[in-house]
UniProtKB/TrEMBL annotation:
<dbReference type="InterPro" id="IPR036962">
    <property type="entry name" value="Glyco_hydro_3_N_sf"/>
</dbReference>
<dbReference type="InterPro" id="IPR026891">
    <property type="entry name" value="Fn3-like"/>
</dbReference>
<keyword id="KW-0136">Cellulose degradation</keyword>
<dbReference type="Pfam" id="PF00933">
    <property type="entry name" value="Glyco_hydro_3"/>
</dbReference>
<keyword id="KW-0119">Carbohydrate metabolism</keyword>
<protein>
    <recommendedName>
        <fullName>Beta-glucosidase cel3A</fullName>
        <ecNumber>3.2.1.21</ecNumber>
    </recommendedName>
</protein>
<keyword id="KW-0624">Polysaccharide degradation</keyword>
<keyword id="KW-0326">Glycosidase</keyword>
<dbReference type="GO" id="GO:0008422">
    <property type="term" value="F:beta-glucosidase activity"/>
</dbReference>
<dbReference type="Pfam" id="PF01915">
    <property type="entry name" value="Glyco_hydro_3_C"/>
</dbReference>
<dbReference type="InterPro" id="IPR036881">
    <property type="entry name" value="Glyco_hydro_3_C_sf"/>
</dbReference>
<keyword id="KW-0732">Signal</keyword>
<dbReference type="GO" id="GO:0005576">
    <property type="term" value="C:extracellular region"/>
</dbReference>
<dbReference type="InterPro" id="IPR013783">
    <property type="entry name" value="Ig-like_fold"/>
</dbReference>
<keyword id="KW-0325">Glycoprotein</keyword>
<dbReference type="Pfam" id="PF14310">
    <property type="entry name" value="Fn3-like"/>
</dbReference>
<comment type="similarity">
    <text>Belongs to the glycosyl hydrolase 3 family.</text>
</comment>
Length: 777
């Protein structure tokens, strides 16, 4: 270790990330052929300066965070790039959609596709060409990560299915999806260089990279994502946007990615190196690296003009592929630079998607405790409401500049948020775990939503109480409020805040736990509701006999209150399932609990070593025989379900050779996607209410024989959400692909189909799997 001396120079790490050159050129394979041919013809008419102009952003008279300049001579109108994966940010007349973690908790493919269409339609109406989302990185490795809420789940399979549906929805209405952040971007602490310290390095082995972190990006590429955003941090000590292994090797070669790679804002730290490593577009501008400097590199031969051509072709091909050359709104037309000045109204909301907003909000709620038939409520005589997350924040009002409204931090301390996001010295980031000033519709940062309308829990409860003649008492400010002991039920609403720029200080907070215990000591029917932007531990109160129900309400978007009340009163049956594992103790998460920080000889080059390998979230709990409080995939309903009649059938017409041999298509080798196993089961509604169940399939893959390698006990490889009437039985079908059955072989550099007996388990969560079968390969 360099004699224990503090490492001063980056040269110490050279070779840690395998070099892969040159950057592969777009091939126009599959459905991209026409767009590719048109893009090639387009750039044939361009001057060198015009090509250079389309490799980096410029200023505009819009509020688009990124903007590619127009080339009027060629009738190219430019392109607007805008945040984010939960809805259009920083403008008016748009919807606040359920956040990524809320979508993950719904486990609903069809609803996810509809959300993508509805959200994408709003971006299109506003003149946004590239939607900066969805998010599958972070993947949830660091449990206290500040941006986990933007992603779907702590499982690559669940994230992969949902990102695929989201990309299809967004691009189905002609908007380019920029799936992000590529790759292994798992913590906010030291995400960027500063103060003489480089960005943290995610140090990750090849197998883990493929089976956990690359997996959902593979699904996004398979779905046709037109853009990928490279990340801030380093990967094996090479910056994400200058990493030739990840961009040239994994993405453009192995996965056959046909679109373009755009930098995260300010994530470019080199000029020639990023061009050669496969980055195609610099945002928000070329800064000190591209622009005129890229032109110089082209002219002196340091960067071949063919690389420049490929950058532009990938951007323009995506523009053609989504049909943006035909009837697409003027870029940024609905993105006024200053909402406080007179501007033209562009109302992007579409009333036909109101039901999607509502259903999405409902289905991301997860009921984890419900004793003594507490829920649903039945015309309560007196409700008492406590907690800071019941009401709206006091302001939902745009101001010019970098306002709390713009950054989604209206409920939080803006000085502390700014310390993390902007680097302000007025506060210490990551010290406060809750948003005291109101309920949460999304987390904070560039992924936040802009509410044009939002219904808080309190708003919706008042309306319901009016209909039922229910008396209401409330106290949103006191940590030890007076409690009327004759209350039919007491609702305590707290939250768990998270935002870009800082990781969370912990997974629980004393203030909220003490509030819950105080109310429960005086009210024998206490219902706890969390709007949680990540995992929230509950050990301090979960077994209290007067805490009769607990709901993880996540981040529901604008229909939050209406959705919650519909569940509380039984108008909707809860059907969400946890997209992560809730532990009993923080220590149960091991080295994945908190972000890594600079230390020892790595004082200036912080290192995050992914030594757990593939054993993240429930894989970690299974491997180490740790009993969670609530397992991955868990969620209660107002009814009960039974499972029966498992059948497993191999497709005799498909190859079960050890390695795939198909050609490279979008998403990797073609035969990886062959369906080779079909599994069927029956699910019966045995209760007294209609409800939806998420039937889950977990696969135990046999040991592959690779020396020193372990495989998880079980891995999610299928899920189906079905609506089942009282007394009704429905069949669910799971189709398993070659990839689902495979392990990444680091020597062969291919997905390897193991030999032996595969265990098939089907049930309602990762630890409730009553149906067990097997097949042999």
């Amino acid at each position: 270790m360099d004699g224990g001396r503090i490492i001063q120079k980056d040269v110490y790490f050279y070779g840690g990330s395998e070099p892969v050159y040159p950057s592969p050129e777009m091939t126009g394979s599959g459905e991209w052929k026409e767009a590719f041919d048109r893009a090639k013809e387009f750039i044939g008419k361009m001057t060198l300066d015009e090509k250079i102009s389309l490799t980096s952003g410029t200023n505009s008279d819009t509020s688009c965070p990124g903007f590619l300049p127009a080339i009027s001579r060629l009738k190219f109108p430019g392109m607007c790039l805008a945040d984010a994966g939960q809805g259009v940010r920083g403008t008016d007349f748009v919807s606040s959609w359920p956040s990524g973690v809320h979508v993950g908790a719904s486990w609903n493919k069809e609803l996810t596709l509809a959300r993508g269409k509805g959200m994408g339609g709003e971006f299109r109406t506003k003149g946004v060409n590239i939607l900066l989302g969805p998010v599958v990185g972070p993947a949830g490795r660091v449990v206290s990560g500040g941006r986990n809420w933007e992603g779907f789940a702590s499982d690559p399979y669940l994230s992969g299915v949902l990102v695929g549906e989201t990309v299809k929805g967004i691009q189905g209405v002609g908007v380019i999806a920029s799936t992000k952040h590529f790759i292994a971007n798992e913590q906010e602490t030291n995400r960027n260089p500063g103060g003489g310290v480089e960005a943290v390095s995610s140090n990750i082995d090849d197998r883990t990279m493929h089976e956990i972190y690359l997996w959902p990006f593979q699904d996004a590429v398979r779905a046709g994502t037109g853009s990928i955003m490279c990340s801030y941090q380093r990967v094996n000590n090479s910056y994400g946007c200058a990493n030739s292994k990840t961009q040239n090797g994994l993405l453009k070669t192995e996965l056959g990615f046909q679109g373009g790679i755009v930098s995260d804002w300010g994530a470019q730290h080199a000029g020639v190196a990023t061009a050669e490593a496969g980055m195609d577009m610099a945002m928000p501008n070329g800064g000190d690296f591209w622009g005129s400097h890229l032109k110089d590199a082209i002219k002196n031969g340091t960067v071949p003009e063919s690389r420049l051509d490929d950058m532009v072709i990938r951007t323009i091909a995506s523009w053609y592929q989504m049909g943006q050359d035909k009837d697409f709104p003027t870029p940024g037309v609905g993105m006024p630079k200053d909402l406080t000045k007179p501007h033209h109204i562009v109302d992007a909301r579409n009333s036909s998607f109101k039901s999607t907003l509502f259903d999405g909000a409902v289905e991301g709620h997860v009921l984890v405790k419900n004793i003594r038939n507490t829920l649903p409520l039945k015309t309560p005589k007196l409700l008492s409401i406590y907690g800071y997350s019941a009401k709206n924040p006091d302001e939902n009002n745009p101001t010019d500049g970098l306002s709390p409204w713009l950054m989604g931090s209206g409920s939080f301390d803006y000085q502390e948020f700014g310390a993390g996001f902007f680097g302000w010295s007025s506060a210490t980031p990551g010290t406060t775990g809750i948003a005291f000033n109101g309920t949460l519709y999304s987390g904070g940062g560039s992924g936040a939503t802009s509410q044009s309308l939002a219904i808080s829990p309190y708003d919706a409860i008042i309306q319901q109480a009016y209909e039922d003649d229910t008396a209401l008492f409330w106290d949103f400010h006191n940590g030890k409020p007076a409690v009327d002991p004759v209350s039919t039920a007491c609702l305590v609403l707290g939250n768990a805040w998270a935002a870009e720029g800082a990781d969370r200080p912990g997974l629980r907070d004393d203030y909220t736990d003490d509030l819950i215990l105080h109310v429960a000591s005086q009210c024998n029917n206490t219902v706890v509701i969390f709007h949680n932007a990540g995992i929230r531990l509950v050990e301090d109160f979960i077994d209290h006999p007067n805490v009769t129900a607990v709901i993880f309400a996540h981040l529901p978007g604008q229909a939050s209150g209406k959705a919650l009340v519909s569940i509380l009163y039984g108008k909707e049956n809860p059907s969400g399932k946890l997209p992560y594992t809730v532990a009993r103790n923080e220590s149960d998460y091991g080295n994945m609990l908190r972000p890594d920080e600079p230390s020892g000889i790595f004082k200036y080059f912080p290192q995050s070593n992914f030594t757990e390998g593939v054993f993240v979230d429930y894989r970690h709990f299974d491997e180490n025989k740790i009993k969670p409080r609530f397992e991955f995939g868990f969620g209660l309903s107002y009814t009960t379900f039974g499972y029966a009649n498992l059948s497993v059938e191999k497709d005799g017409n498909k190859s079960f050779e050890e390695f795939p041999k198909g050609k490279i298509v979008e998403g990797g080798r073609e035969d990886l996607w062959d369906v080779v196993i079909r599994v069927e089961a029956e699910v019966e509604n045995k209760g007294e209410a209609e409800g939806k169940e998420v039937a889950q399939l977990y696969l135990g893959i046999p040991f592959t024989g690779m020396e020193g390698e372990k495989v998880p006990v079980r891995q999610l490889r299928g899920f189906e959400k079905v609506l089942i009437g009282v007394g009704e039985t429905k069949k669910v079908v799971f189709e398993l692909t070659r990839r689902d059955l495979s392990v990444w072989d680091v020597r062969a550099q291919k997905w390897r189909l193991g030999r032996g007996e595969y265990k098939v388990e089907v049930g309602g969560s990762s630890r409730d799997l009553p149906l067990v079968g097997q097949f042999t390969v």
